[in-house]
Amino acid sequence: MLMNAESQGSVPIRSILVIDDHPLYCDALASTLEHIFEAKTIKTATTLSEGLKLIGARFSPDLVMLDLKLPDVTGISGFLRLKSKIPDVPVLVISALTSVEVIQTLMTAGAAGFIPKDVSAKVLQSALIDVREGRKFLPPGYKQSSREPTDEPTAQQIAQKIADLTPQQSRIMKLICAGKPNKQIAYELSLAEATVKAHITALLRRLGVQNRTQAAVLVESASLEGAAGISDADARAFLSQ
């Protein structure tokens, strides 16, 4: 499905970054991109952190292909971190998570398009050509949700809070979600327990919650783990928790 009304003219694609944690899929996608764009430089990464490190003075991609489910990412916070670093570069999301709410949240957040991982080579090629021509791409049959706005935080707002955590706070948050007490967190991260407590106080403030339990619930609600194949109604409830 094309969003022709949002066409902004042809975009030269000379360098591409592919971020996907499945090496074989990552390599296959890079090969397809090379064929379609004849790009001079295509780099790949299997984690968001690795991908962000590749972006710099020596490599500035014209297009990023991003898988949502990465080992160092919660929900769409990885997408938001990537866009904050390269706001003017189109980011095309490719994922097995295809609920209307997930797609709508990403497009609202500024994605150049969304490609389900199970699409045919023909659809993939069409999507890439659309992005090259400055159009946005959405899966065939996609229909925007008509959900009424509420005062509850959106999935994008929750993900942005998580994305704003420092790397150390993110590591501590993952251990909190795993049920680790402060003493164990301090041991695993080689920190003083007082330092861990200080980090937790800061991350609770950033997330806008009162305690560790609320923080864990908030982070789990933003996690896209296990969301593939759920109904739009379930996805809506899942993303707005």
Question: Could you explain how this protein is built, in words?
Answer:
The longest helix is centred in the first third of the chain and has 15 residues. The N terminus and C terminus are likely disordered. This protein is elongated. The protein is built from eleven helices and seven strands. The chain has a five-stranded parallel beta sheet, sandwiched between helices. With 241 residues, the protein is an alpha/beta fold. Helix content is 47%, strand content 11%.
Q: Biggest sheet, in brief?
A: 5 strands, parallel
Count of folded domains: 2
Major β-sheet strand ordering: 3-2-4-5-6
Low-confidence stretches: 1-7, 224-241
Helical content band: 40-55%
User: Overall 3D geometry?
Assistant: elongated
Radius of gyration: 19 Å
Output the CATH class name of the largest domain: Alpha Beta
CATH topology of the largest domain: Rossmann fold
What portion of residues belong to β-strands? 5-15%
The N- and C-terminal alpha carbons lie at a distance of 29 Å
- In CATH, the homologous superfamily of the largest domain goes by the name Response regulator
Secondary-structure element series: EEHEHEHEHEHEHHHHHH
SS field, number of helical segments:
11
The CATH architecture term of the largest domain is 3-Layer(aba) Sandwich
* Average pLDDT reading: 77
| Total number of beta strands | 7
Structural class from helices and strands?
Answer: alpha/beta
